[in-house]
């Protein structure tokens, strides 16, 4: 996206929103934490979406209409496993589910943004930023990427998944090459955590040098 392209629907004219994304195990959450430690505000879209499906009565009723009562457990909490199983084999339902959840996250982000004082530069962590064309809701994008081997090893260590399970997920995501083409800034995470910290510092300097 062009650096000074104007957002069609800018949620806050005082803010510059950077979409932060990366495939499974790329290190985007680690980068978000580094940025947070540097003092930036981060909106975690995926974590908020997970909360909103439980907090919002409207979302709950729409999701039950789409996927049935079993989309929520007896205790009233969202049944992620059940929903994942249905949408895994039914991409049409996944699209509708995303179209139900997305507007709720969008308005939650808008509220979050309005309540911030330090909102000149905001990072919005979103796993499917490019896949769902959500980069159009950000001024610019930052991609965290790493070699497949490093990513799969990290996810196997973190989640106890098998190599094949990680590979299946990686193969369903947008190819890294395509994401690299779309991103305005790319952070390569193939080394140590210290290397990653240095890479983030570099991108921070480039962002701070931009004229908004
Ligand atoms: P997901 O989309 O699967 O949630 P993610 O992109 O948010 O993944 P992280 O959770 O940040 O990725 O990183 C995956 C795992 O790899 C974490 O356990 C993290 O601590 C570890 N990790 C990230 N970068 C490095 C690195 N450079 N060296 C060692 N471990 C790393």
Automatic annotation (TrEMBL):
Its predominant location is cytoplasm
Keyword Phosphoprotein included in the entry's annotation: no
Known EC number: 2.7.1.24
The molecular function terms in GO held by this entry are: ATP binding; dephospho-CoA kinase activity
Q: In which pathway does it act?
A: Cofactor biosynthesis; coenzyme A biosynthesis; CoA from (R)-pantothenate: step 5/5
| GO biological processes | coenzyme A biosynthetic process
Q: Which cell locations does it reside in?
A: Cytoplasm
Q: Which UniProt keywords apply?
A: ATP-binding, Coenzyme A biosynthesis, Cytoplasm, Kinase, Nucleotide-binding, Transferase
Binding-site list for ATP = 25-30
Q: What class of enzyme is it?
A: transferase
Gene3D superfamilies in the cross-refs: P-loop containing nucleotide triphosphate hydrolases
Similarity field: Belongs to the CoaE family.
Q: What does this protein do?
A: Catalyzes the phosphorylation of the 3'-hydroxyl group of dephosphocoenzyme A to form coenzyme A.
What is the recorded name of this protein?
Dephospho-CoA kinase
Q: Which organism is it from?
A: Frigoriflavimonas asaccharolytica
Q: Which gene encodes it?
A: coaE
């Amino acid at each position: 996206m062009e650096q000074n392209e104007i957002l069609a629907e800018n949620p806050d004219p005082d803010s510059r929103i950077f979409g932060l994304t990366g495939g499974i195990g790329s290190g985007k959450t680690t980068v978000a934490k580094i940025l947070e430690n540097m003092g930036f505000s981060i909106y975690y879209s995926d974590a908020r979406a997970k909360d909103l499906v439980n907090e919002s009565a409207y979302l709950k009723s729409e999701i039950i209409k789409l996927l049935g009562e079993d989309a929520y457990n007896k205790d009233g909490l969202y049944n992620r496993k059940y929903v994942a199983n249905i949408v895994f084999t039914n991409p049409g339902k996944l699209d509708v589910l995303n179209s139900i959840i997305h507007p709720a996250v969008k308005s939650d982000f808008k509220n979050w943004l309005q309540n911030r004082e330090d909102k000149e530069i905001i990072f919005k962590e979103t796993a499917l930023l490019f896949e769902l064309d959500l980069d159009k809701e950000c001024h610019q994008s930052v991609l965290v990427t790493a070699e497949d081997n490093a990513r799969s090893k990290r996810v196997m260590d973190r989640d106890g998944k098998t190599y094949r399970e990680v590979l299946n997920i990686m193969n369903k995501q947008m190819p890294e090459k395509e994401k690299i083409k779309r991103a305005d800034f790319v952070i390569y995470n193939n080394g140590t955590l210290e290397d990653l910290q240095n890479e983030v510092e570099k991108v921070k300097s480039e962002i701070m040098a931009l004229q908004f």
